[in-house]
Amino acid sequence: MTPTDQTPENHVPQHWLEGILDILKEAVEGGAPGQGTAFVDGTAAGGDSNHGLLATLDSLSAAQASRDVHGTSIVGHARHTAFHLEVMVRWEQAGDRGPFDWKGSFLPAQVDDAGWDEVRVRVRAAYDALMAFARTQQDRPDGDLTGGLTGTVAHVAYHLGAIRQLVKAVS
What highest taxon heads this organism's lineage (predicted)? Predict the structure, then answer.
């Protein structure tokens, strides 16, 4: 159902968790082909022009992703983003409060082709694990997960933006 289809007679309220996960999905997977988006560039009806994190990473070679741009690289941002998603699940599911090596999570910042494939698989796996875990929390009576998930959305969106700016320098 699109927002224009929602009249008072047929409006079904969205669960808070689904609303947050929809925005996280847009940041990571991009927009639905031919549909409007909340904040990333729209994805064309044919599925091209997808500017979510996964499609952005998939559009780059290992050499491009490894290129140093003012002391950082796309590989570093991708590794760090995967690490953050993994920590979010550990934090919420297992109560693991660290310590976490946030600085080290950006390293190594350069990879070969096989290493780049591994980084992209790790990002996807970390995202899938977080989504699967979060969906088990819909009946949770409190909103403790709200802060963690909204922080994750902001964090992923920040790194998506940083990566998209770095793409301009390496393309």
Answer: Bacteria
Total structural domains within the chain: 1
Q: CB within 8 A of 105, min separation 6: which ones?
A: 79, 80, 83, 84
SS3 for 83-131 is HHHHHHHHHHHHCCCCCCCCCHHHCCCCCCHHHHHHHHHHHHHHHHHHH
pLDDT of residue 7: 60
pTM metric for this prediction = 0.89
Whether 102 maps to a domain, the answer reads yes
5 lies in some domain: no
Domain containing 144 equals 17-31+51-170
Give the per-residue pLDDT at 6. 54
| Residue ranges of the chain with per-residue pLDDT less than 50 | 1-2
The pLDDT score that the predictor gives to residue 60 is: 97
CATH of the domain at 121: 1.20.120
